[in-house]
Amino acid sequence: MSDFENRHKEKFLRIFEKELKKIDKPIILEFGVSKKALSTSIFLEYCEKKNGHLYSVDLVDYSYHFKSNNWQFIHCKDDDYDKIESIIPKNFDIIYLDTIHTASHVEKILYHYFDKLNIGGVFVVDDTSSLPYLKKREKNNFSLEINNYETFQKLLEIFNSNHENLYFESSFIGTGAVKLTKLNDNKLKRSKTLSDRRLSFLNLVRKIYLKLKRIV
Ligand SMILES: C[S@@+](CC[C@H](N)C(=O)[O-])C[C@H]1O[C@@H](n2cnc3c(N)ncnc32)[C@H](O)[C@@H]1O
User: Fold this and answer.
1) Can you tell me whether residue 167 is helix, strand or coil?
2) Helix, strand or coil, per DSSP, at residue 86
3) Which tens digit of pLDDT belongs to each residue from 142-162?
4) b/e 30-47 (16+ beta carbons within 10 angstroms → b)
5) What secondary structure does DSSP assign to 54-84, as a single string?
6) Is 156 exposed, middle or buried, given 0-12, 13-18 or 19+ CB atoms closer than 10 A?
7) Helices (H) and strands (E) in the chain, counts
8) Mutate to test the pocket of ligand 1, among 8, 34, 61 (most ligand atoms within 8 A of CB)
9) What domains, with CATH codes, occur in the chain?
10) Is the Cβ atom of 125 under 6 angstroms away from ligand 1?
């Protein structure tokens, strides 16, 4: 396994650590399988042990990866709601999104499927850290840096508008992930831009004051 794959696996195991231990008969919906099927193989092993079921969606036909009574592959896009909903059950313990890593796509899929989570269930979004894609880092990539940054900011905004209804946890291992835990059955409210005070006049005064203090 490459260093990158090791980190992806480590991040995955850590972010799902509690859920993989505690949920019996887990029902899992996963978007994004890939040639390597790392997340699929971990989820499936766990479903086979705990008598659960995994539904995996990908636009490429990866149905050849596994033969298991605990697995169903759905060959379509993650926003082909009619097809997916004709196959999946009503509720899930875990939903995992690892397909298109733009803020607008993540927001669309999150709002569509979030209602299907059980209370205490988790929605995990992969690829939320821009750090490995910064200029002097090993993955140096402008568009992935910006996509991941915008996705993380969007998830913060969604959390801020729903802080009574969610927990927000984040990993910065590898390319990062965010886990949202559903605390109640309240409908997810639309997000608003964060009204923080970094660019306020008050902060400007604070910065000038701190600079002057250092000089004197
Ligand atoms: C990063 S890979 C998934 C990696 C996998 N979760 C793992 O841990 O090994 C992304 C996958 O998403 C699929 N994909 C991309 N856009 C999609 C979409 N809109 N709907 C469904 N699958 C999509 C790609 O075909 C690819 O297999």
Assistant:
1) strand
2) helix
3) 999 999 999 999 999 999 999
4) bbbbeeebbbbebbbebb
5) EEEEESS--TTS---TTEEEEES-TT-HHHH
6) middle
7) 7, 7
8) 34
9) 3-215 (3.40.50.150)
10) no
Residues 6+ apart with CB under 8 A from 172: 129, 131
For residue 41 and ligand 1, the question of a CB distance below 6 A is answered with no
Rounded distance from Cα 199 to ligand 1 centre (Å): 37
Q: Are strands 117-126 and 166-171 parallel, antiparallel or unpaired?
A: unpaired
Count, residues in the chain: 216
pLDDT digits (tens, 9 = 90+) for 48-84: 999 999 999 999 999 999 999 999 999 999 999 999 9
Closest CA to 12 of 97, 73, 87, 86: 97
Which residue, judged by its Cα, is nearest atom 27 of ligand 1? 34
Q: Which two tokens stand for residue 94?
A: 């875990």
Instruction: Measure CA 147 to chain center.
Output: 13
Tell me if 171 sits within 8 A of 16, measured CB to CB: no
pTM of the model: 0.95
Instruction: Answer for the pair 62, 37: CB distance below 8 angstroms, yes or no.
Output: yes
Which of 15, 83, 99, 125 has most ligand 1 atoms within 8 Å of CB, for mutation?
99
151 burial (CB, 10 Å; 0-12 / 13-18 / 19+) is buried
